[in-house]
Each structure stands twice: as structure tokens, then as C-alpha cells.
Amino acid sequence: MKKIALLAYNGELMCFAHVMLYALDLDKKGYEVKVVIEGSATKLITELAVPDAPFSQLFNQIKAKGLLTCICQACSQKMGTFDEAQKQGLEIVGDMQGHPSIDTFLEEGYEIISF
User: Domains along the chain?
Assistant: First the structure.
């Protein structure tokens, strides 16, 4: 099975919506998928938690399917969403100077795609 790690950095909602669509599509087609929220994309988790917000259903789907692997500790702190990440029960990772290390994914055989 092919393994794909999607790293979302861009805080533009339409860009992140595509990351979520790609994750769901790849998962449906049998890929092992992990989504990591980094950079300014960490600011999106607050608006995506609002039930009627655009793309909130996609966000809930990737969380429910276990595709949302983690959110960056340092970036969520910088963007002011660290507490929201905790509230949502998201895994917060900062094993590389406050950021998730991609080495972990590479060691596990994941292809890295960043947005």
C-alpha cells in the first residue's frame, strides 16, 4: 500500500479544502494517508470547528477517519490556535524545535506532499 503524508502550510481555506479532498480521495482508493497541519494553516481549525462553516464537514470527515495526524505545536501557538487544538483533541506535535519532524514519516515510508 502506498503511503502519502500531506503537509498543509497554506492558511488559505480553499487550498486546505483541497488537501482535505485529496486525503479523503486517496484514503478511499486504498492509500495510507496522513495530514499534518503546519504554518498558517493552523489558524483554520477554529473556523472549521463551526458546524455550518464552509468545509467543516470535510474537516470532520478527515478527523473521524483518523487522517488528521497532527498539528504543529509552534505554529498553532504563533497563530493563536494551540488552545483550540487541545479543545478539539488534536494531536499536537513539536518534536523538531517545536514543529513535527518529517523524518518520522520518511522512516515509515511515506511520500511527502506539501501545500
Answer: 3-114 (3.40.1260.10)
Mean pLDDT within 49-62: 96
d(CA 15, CA 11): 8
CB atoms < 10 A from the CB of 92, how many?
A: 17
Question: Phi first, then psi: what are they for 23, rounded to 5°?
Answer: -60, -45
CA nearest neighbour of 28 among 67, 63, 57: 67
pTM above 0.70, yes or no: yes
Q: Would you state the cell numbers that stand for residue 76, as one nine-digit string? A: 498553532
At position 112, the amino acid (one-letter code) is I
Q: What is the DSSP string of the chain?
A: --EEEEEE----HHHHHHHHHHHHHHHHTT-EEEEEE-GGGGGHHHHHTSTTSTTHHHHHHHHHTT-EEEEEHHHHHHTT-HHHHHHHT--EE-TBTTB--THHHHHTTPEEEE-
